[in-house]
Amino acid sequence: MLATSLSSYQDYFETGEGDNKIPHYDYPDVWTAFAKDSLMNVFLYAAIALVVVLVVVGIFVSLKKPESMKNFMRTALGFACGFAVAVIAAMLSLEFFDMYENGYVFDLVLWPSVACVAVVVLGIAAIYISSLFTKKAFRLTSAICGGLAAAAFVALFVCLAVYFASGDATANNGVEISVSESVVLYVCAAVLIAAIAVCAVLFDRGNKRGFDSKSISYAAVCIAMSFALSYIAPIHMPQGGSVTIASLLPLMLYSFMFGTKKGAVAGAVYGLLQIIQDPWIIHPAQLLLDYPIAFAGIGLAGMFAHTKKLEKLPQLQFALGAIVASVFRFAAHLLSGVFAFSAYAPDVDAWIYSLGYNGTYVFPDIAIAIAAGVIVLSSPAFVKQLRKFSAQKKSVPAAVEAQPVSETALPESPAQEASVQPAESVPAAPAADKKE
Q1: Distance between CA atoms of 303 and 283, rounded to whole angstroms?
Q2: Residue 243 to residues 223, 256, 260, 263, 320: CA-CA distances in angstroms?
């Protein structure tokens, strides 16, 4: 009965007067489209209500009992994670149903994408669990999971190449990419990958802290929260892309806390998840540009988090990094639009079309995330918690490590004292005179 009433629901009109009004339904759309739109609105208001409640309670705790702020933030994070899981489970299920009903599922592309994401997610979980044991187990698990993830990504790339070479991409999307455009797409993808990698390493060179259990767990939490918020999108574009309610903020804050290297990796993982949520795939290099590369660029948002001159202005540190990160994301979408989606703009120059199309949703989406981040970082208590995570582990200079032990240093044990003391040296002072 429920499936029948929801099936292909579009809208209804009423006949009769007063209490005798009877609803009538039209059925040109599938029921999942209605369910997705309705749940999105429900989750939107639920998210707003949750944020308001947590902010009000947080302000009250910080004023009346500041020593409990840490426990409150853990509780708030737990509520946020639970909400994110509920959103992801509901919306992702409906997304799959919707793709099936509309004929958008292509087994050669979808299931390898799902397998790749599953390998990455399960690998992160395995690495986190192994980090709770020995360093050897952590390194071994990281190597195995990294190899499996690389193999899954290569398999996905091969499937995409077969899908593109078969001509199905042209038939399904109504586009045709020339050989020259294909070469340019690969070159653009390679250049942006190199640029993001260089920036990530350059602005995080003082951070010697590798992936550990804390950074991995927070990466998973921030990716999940961003993915959940990406479903709350009031504006959707016809060829992919949307304006969301600060969905990129958790990823940006993660980069601000743990550095640009980890931020870029977390962003790339998030981009892989986006392939399942909003799949517009017409070329392997286009997939790289629109998904992992674009959101790996968002992972550079923390590039100014350790700039000493701006240490007292965390809002400015965040805003500057977020702007640079948005430039990388926009560049990836812009190049993809010019060389992969130019067929959608037959009467307009490809560059103008891509600028207009991608600028319509990228800049508002980034602006919302930056505004929300500046507001959040205006809280001294929140900034204090972030600084605890962003404290960098400095390496010991080689000159200091190589410096010989001072001759006046006390021996570590009586045995060492006896072994290094010359035969004609002055006898050691009585034990009672020694300083502990």
Answers
A1: 31
A2: 18, 22, 24, 21, 21
| Average pLDDT rounded to a whole number, residues 23-34 | 54
Q: What is the DSSP letter of 174?
A: S
CA distance 246 to 255: 15
- The closest alpha carbon to 252, from 390, 76, 119, belongs to 390
Task: Tell me the three state secondary structure of residue 205.
Answer: coil
Q: How far apart (Å, rounded) are the C-alpha atoms in residues 289 and 190?
A: 9
Instruction: List pLDDT tens digits, range 290-316.
Output: 999 999 999 999 999 888 888 888 899
Q: Are 258 and 215 in contact (CB under 8 A)?
A: yes
Q: What percent of the chain has pLDDT over 90?
A: 19
Place of tokens 């599953």: 118
CA quadruple 116, 117, 122, 123: dihedral, nearest 10:
60
Architecture per CATH, domain 167-390, reads as Orthogonal Bundle (1.10)
Question: Tell me, what DSSP letter sits at residue 186?
Answer: H
pLDDT at residue 144, as a whole number:
92
* 138/99 Cα distance (integer angstroms): 38
Total-model pTM: 0.72
Rg (CA), the chain: 27
Beta bridge partners of 15: 22
Least Cα distance to 268 among 227, 304, 297, 229 occurs for: 297
Judge contact between 50 and 33, C-beta under 8 A.
no
3-state secondary structure of 242: strand
- Does an H or E element contain 15, and which? strand 12-15
Helix (H), strand (E) at residue 356? helix 350-376
Strand, coil or helix: what is 24? strand
What Cα–Cα distance (Å) separates residue 149 from each residue in 112, 153, 322, 348?
Answer: 12, 6, 28, 40
Residue 99, pLDDT score = 67
H/E element, 193: helix 179-202
On whether the CB atoms of residues 254 and 218 are closer than 8 A, the answer is: yes
Tokens 């404290």 sit at which residue?
Answer: 391
pLDDT at residue number 400:
40
Instruction: Please tell me the distance from the alpha carbon of residue 392 to that of residue 401, in angstroms, as a whole number.
Output: 19
- Whether the CA torsion 37, 38, 39, 44 is positive or negative: it is positive
Mean pLDDT calculated for residue range 386-404:
50
